[in-house]
Amino acid sequence: MHTGCSSDQVAILSERVSIHGQWSSRLMFVLAATGSAVGLGNIWKFPYITGENGGGAFVLVYLLSIALIGIPIMVAEVSIGRRGRQSPVNALRALAQDDGGSRFWWLVGFLGIVTCLLILSFYSVIAGCALAYVLRTAGGVFRGVTASGAESIFSGLISDPEKLLAWHTLFMIMTLGVVARGVRSGLEQAVRFLMPMLFLMLLLLVILGYQLHFESFMKGVRFMFLPDFDALTANGILVAMGHAFFTLSLGMGAMMVYGSYLPAGISIFRASFFIALVDTLVALMAGLAIFPMVFASELGTGSGPGLIFQTLPIAFGQIPGGRWVGTLFFVLLVFASLTSAISLLEPAVAWLVENRGIQRIRATVLVGSVSWVLGVITILSLGPWAFGFQFAGESRSKGLFDIMDVLTSVIMLPVGGLAVALLAGWVLSRARTVAELGGREGVAFWLWYLTIRYVTPVSLIAVFLHAIGVI
Ligand code: TRP
């Protein structure tokens, strides 16, 4: 990021300039935002929640949520960020006040900061598992492995708090390292080269699944794309909707803070659409790589958070050169997680720098440390502290980890998103929003505006009411 933005360029759309600098180019924003969106959410979480929630019908609700809720909120977040040119807390306060709203909108930004600390805490533990799998795969542990072998290797890892702590710590240090070195140099390369590689890698795995186990491949395709509405519960709808937020990094200010570094002139509509498209394709490909393996082995679709760690190694163990293909895959997964993790830090860091005058590096270490400590909760709840409970009629077995997951993805992100939709649709001045979104009240604008005003809030509230049994 640099601050070399001509002042008249800024003046057209907003009078503010971010103290944190600006992306060096339009491409950089798209890369960073795509890097934030594509991560464990796509490759680890999407397949396992699809498996747990019965497949096709769940995927359909998820795709609808991306289109009707995710993309409109992304446009709102990025444009609020760019107009506000500050951390989400301050941008929300400033914009709402400029346009005659309440000053308490900053609370939404604050909720976002708390959410991001919580998400980062378990994100880093799972990314730590991916890191552990780089070594395990390279070491040839998975050669010819069976489903039960892969299961026991995974449970050996997650039931050992010391190992998990070590990997979690290493991942957190890597994240802080990337942020401290400056987001630009490292991140740009990571997203520009490693993301397309990850994409190709997933494609390769999908093709392999097709060739190795054609029957199972078709079962996987049917499972993902043939909706069976009987398999979909009210809770499943809620999880699908929450995941649209998680996977697009919405609802806690990450896209907003990235938008605040965005130069004037780039089309927010086009960028948001592109980011959502890439993100969705990656998730669907991950599903197509994983489900054929599930059906080809005796694993169940509902194996939960371990799904990716129990299925892909079987594929790597079967193919020639699978050891290196697998190693590369987990390396790429770690990079995808890194580019997401830094966006979980950014809203809190930007806020600490603005409001507390803390230096950037210090703020980063502070936020990272809090999340690191919280991560211990996840580590213990995967093993020694595991307990089962019922939530919305579903049984869950990972205790505090499940609680954090539900609290963040299913409650806090959608609530944050709803607030953003209401702010953008009902509080902020339409003229100023139009100016931010390209200056013309064309078809794209009206399509978005009506969606964010009516469709998005109504669908969000309906899903919530449905989940608690009111409708
Ligand atoms: N979107 C990322 C993923 O799919 C995770 C993530 C990054 C995130 N930043 C976020 C989730 C902000 C919610 C909010 O892996």
Describe the SSE topology.
Layout (H helix, E strand, L loop, with lengths): L6 H7 L12 H12 L2 H13 L3 H29 L3 H11 L7 H33 L8 H12 L2 H20 L2 H30 L1 H12 L8 H14 L6 H6 L8 H29 L10 H12 L3 H35 L3 H23 L6 E3 L2 E3 L3 H28 L2 H7 L6 H25 L4
The chain binds tryptophan.
Tryptophan binds next to helix 2, helix 3, helix 11 and helix 15.
Short description:
The chain has 471 residues and is an all-alpha fold. The chain has helices at 7-13, 26-37, 40-52, 56-84, 88-98, 106-138, 147-158, 161-180, 183-212, 214-225, 234-247, 254-259, 268-296, 307-318, 322-356, 360-382, 400-427, 430-436, 443-467, and strands at residues 389-391, 394-396. Strand 1 (389-391) and strand 2 (394-396) form a beta hairpin.
Q: What is the average per-residue confidence, as pLDDT, rounded to a whole number?
A: 90
**What percent of residues adopt helix (DSSP H or I)?**
over 70%
List of distinct ligands in this structure? tryptophan
Please state the overall shape, judged from the principal axes of the Cα atoms.
globular
Cα distance spanning the termini = 47 Å
Order of helices and strands: HHHHHHHHHHHHHHHHEEHHH
* Number of alpha- plus pi-helical segments: 19
What CATH architecture would you give? Orthogonal Bundle
Structural class by SSE content? mainly alpha
Question: What is the highest CATH level, the class?
Answer: Mainly Alpha
The stretches of 5 or more residues where confidence is low (pLDDT under 50) are: 1-13
**Strand order within the widest sheet?**
1-2
User: How many structurally independent domains?
Assistant: 1
Sketch the major β-sheet.
2 strands, antiparallel
The percent range for strand residues is under 5%
* Cα gyration radius (Å): 21 Å
CATH topology: Hydantoin permease
Give the beta-strand count.
2
